[in-house]
Structure formats: structure tokens, C-alpha cells
Specification:
The structure is a homodimer. The first copy, chain A, is of the alpha+beta class. Chain A has one domain: 2,3-Dihydroxybiphenyl 1,2-Dioxygenase, domain 1, CATH 3.10.180. Chain A has three helices and nine strands. In chain A, the strands form two sheets. Chain A has a seven-stranded mixed beta sheet. Chain A is globular. Chains A and B meet through strand 1, helix 1 and helix 3 of A and strand 1, helix 1 and helix 3 of B.
């Protein structure tokens, strides 16, 4: 598992409110966003996402409950091939991670799985054919 | 506020356990780490940190409680001058963020403040003289 992170996603209670907040910070959403559903911001070689908290919990395969079960944050580690999704998950589970979702075909066409680290921080392992990973591990997503 | 993130920090219950977990993923800590206190990993132009959950909550100026008050994750936005800490905080508060800690001198010599976004996700705004910010917004921290 290469030493990098590709996306940071925050689960939010009100997507419009959160999008307005980050716009008010001076940030501009990426054209990869799906208005009203998920908002992306291209950062410095990584992507920052805002997603409904329930949607994000569902995506990670965990209950949207507190305390403890779900922090409202996921980190995504993108890989360069579908085969790597399985190898990274195997590494994570061997390291003591807990699988919360097995590898599955995502709606956008990629292959996605999730594991939780020892504190329940959720990592997505993802092959996304639309997210370009540079040699330095930076990811660029979408067209903006 | 530039469109980027510099550090991702996870609050963890057992630092040694978490360090062992990420090492087992194949990651190598940065020489910037303080063994037994805080562990850093240089990622793709950003830095990933493991820090005691209570320490992280204390650093962010929030109670280490659930539900809701603290997710166990912070995002850090580093700036290029101390003056920018105040300007970024002013922007964040004007956008509807809530200050959880006013700007203050950190032990390492930098200037640090914290705000919470609408869902209580905690952002550190930090001028760290030891973290070099490249023109593209990527940050490199420490000597490794």
C-alpha cells in the first residue's frame, strides 16, 4: 500500500449548507461534482469531498451512529488497477484492519472496498478509472 | 483561503497500536515523528499524523466526547506567513465557522488556530516554519 491518501470526504448533515460554507472560504467545486448529491474540490494533488453523512456511512458499510461507530470522515486510497484493490485490502486485513465492505462495483464504474483502522477510521480502497494518479501519488479527479 | 489541505490527523486510542498498524500497511514514519507522542507520515504532498485522541481533542480545543462533539479527525490548512493565520480564521468565521481555539503560539514555534465547520469537523490553521509549502500547495514536513 503506497504511502499516500487520495480523497478526504466529510459526511455532512446539509450538503447545500456545507457547499456554501466551503465556497465562502473561497473554494470552487470541481466539475466532477454532482450538484445536490456530492461536491468535490480539487486540492493539492488530492480531492476533498462533501457527501451526505448517511450516504457516506452507507457507502462505507457502517451504521450512521455515534458514539464511535462512524466519525463522519473517510480517507480514500486510490490504486492504479482493479487487482490492487484486493491486494491492498488483503494487506490491510493482515495488518489488523476490519473489512466493512468487500470489493464491489460502484455506480460510477470503479471497484471499491472499505476497511476500518484500529480506531474505526474508515478507509476506502478504490480503483477509479476517472481519477488519474501521477507518478508522485497525487490524484487528479474530473475535468476541472 | 487557498484550496488545499496540508495534514490529516487521526486521533487514536493507542498510538503504538496505530503506528504498528500503518507500518504493517507498508508505511514508514517520517523523521519528524516524536516517538510515543505523535507519528507523522509524509504522503503525496501532504502529511498524515497519528496523535492521541485526547491530545488531539485538547489541541483542537474541544472536549473528547461523543456523540458529535469530536470526530477524532482534524484537517490542517497550513499558510505561508503568521499573518495569514488571522486572515484565514477571519474568512472561516465570516463563512459561518466556529472558532474553537484562537491563534496561539504552539510548542513547536508555529502559530495555530482552530475552527469547526458546520458539522463540527475541525480545521487547524497553522503557520509552521518547518513545513515547506510548494507553489502547488503541497506541503513537505520534516527531513524525511
Amino acid at each position: 500500500m503506497e504511502q499516500r491518501v487520495s480523497f478526504i470526504t466529510l459526511g455532512v448533515a446539509d450538503l447545500a449548507r456545507s457547499e456554501a460554507f466551503y465556497r465562502a472560504l473561497g473554494w470552487a467545486p470541481s466539475k466532477a461534482s454532482v450538484p445536490g448529491k456530492i461536491i468535490f474540490f480539487q486540492l493539492n494533488g488530492i480531492v476533498f469531498g462533501l457527501f451526505g453523512r448517511q450516504d457516506l456511512a452507507d457507502d462505507a458499510g457502517v451504521p450512521n451512529t455515534l458514539p464511535g461507530a462512524f466519525s463522519g470522515v473517510t480517507l480514500s486510497h486510490n490504486v492504479r488497477s482493479e487487482a490492487e484493490v484486493e491486494t491492498v485490502m488483503a494487506t490491510a486485513l493482515a495488518a489488523g484492519g476490519a473489512q466493512t465492505r468487500a470489493a464491489h462495483r460502484a455506480d460510477f464504474g470503479g471497484l471499491v472496498a472499505y476497511f476500518a483502522d484500529p480506531d474505526g477510521h474508515h478507509w476506502e480502497v478504490c480503483h477509479n478509472p476517472f481519477a488519474v494518479i501521477a507518478d508522485d501519488g497525487s490524484v487528479r479527479f474530473g475535468r476541472s
